[in-house]
């Protein structure tokens, strides 16, 4: 009787150990999921930084006129009515004069 009980308990122990190390939700699977999470976090870090920069720019554009003016000057070439604009071409663009 005790011999059969010992065999059943050993079989149960082996079955539980199999599930722990190799079955569904095992330690190996947990390590794989942890590695995938780490890889995704590494991929998401630059995207999070970009999102933070864009969010700061949106807040700046919503609240301040200076940011809107700066953007208009750089992208559209805005000049105020009380300013004079002088365009100076780069010296390295054309051929040298004789």
UniProtKB/TrEMBL annotation:
<dbReference type="GO" id="GO:0005886">
    <property type="term" value="C:plasma membrane"/>
</dbReference>
<protein>
    <recommendedName>
        <fullName>Cell division protein FtsB</fullName>
    </recommendedName>
</protein>
<feature type="topological domain" description="Cytoplasmic">
    <location>
        <begin position="1"/>
        <end position="4"/>
    </location>
</feature>
<comment type="function">
    <text>Essential cell division protein. May link together the upstream cell division proteins, which are predominantly cytoplasmic, with the downstream cell division proteins, which are predominantly periplasmic.</text>
</comment>
<dbReference type="GO" id="GO:0030428">
    <property type="term" value="C:cell septum"/>
</dbReference>
<dbReference type="GO" id="GO:0032153">
    <property type="term" value="C:cell division site"/>
</dbReference>
<comment type="subunit">
    <text>Part of a complex composed of FtsB, FtsL and FtsQ.</text>
</comment>
<comment type="similarity">
    <text>Belongs to the FtsB family.</text>
</comment>
<feature type="topological domain" description="Periplasmic">
    <location>
        <begin position="23"/>
        <end position="98"/>
    </location>
</feature>
<dbReference type="Pfam" id="PF04977">
    <property type="entry name" value="DivIC"/>
</dbReference>
<keyword id="KW-0997">Cell inner membrane</keyword>
<keyword id="KW-0812">Transmembrane</keyword>
<feature type="coiled-coil region">
    <location>
        <begin position="37"/>
        <end position="71"/>
    </location>
</feature>
<dbReference type="InterPro" id="IPR023081">
    <property type="entry name" value="Cell_div_FtsB"/>
</dbReference>
<keyword id="KW-1003">Cell membrane</keyword>
<keyword id="KW-0472">Membrane</keyword>
<keyword id="KW-0175">Coiled coil</keyword>
<dbReference type="InterPro" id="IPR007060">
    <property type="entry name" value="FtsL/DivIC"/>
</dbReference>
<keyword id="KW-0132">Cell division</keyword>
<dbReference type="GO" id="GO:0043093">
    <property type="term" value="P:FtsZ-dependent cytokinesis"/>
</dbReference>
<keyword id="KW-0131">Cell cycle</keyword>
<keyword id="KW-1133">Transmembrane helix</keyword>
């Amino acid at each position: 009787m005790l011999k059969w009980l010992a065999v059943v308990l050993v079989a149960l122990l082996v079955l539980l150990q199999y599930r722990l190390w190799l079955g569904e939700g095992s330690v190996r699977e947990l390590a794989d999921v942890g590695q995938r999470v780490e890889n995704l976090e590494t991929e998401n870090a630059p995207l999070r930084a970009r999102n933070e920069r864009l969010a700061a720019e949106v807040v700046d554009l919503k609240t301040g006129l200076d940011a809107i003016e700066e953007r208009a000057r750089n992208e559209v070439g805005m000049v105020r009515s009380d300013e004079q604009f002088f365009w100076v071409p780069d010296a390295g663009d054309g051929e040298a004069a004789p």
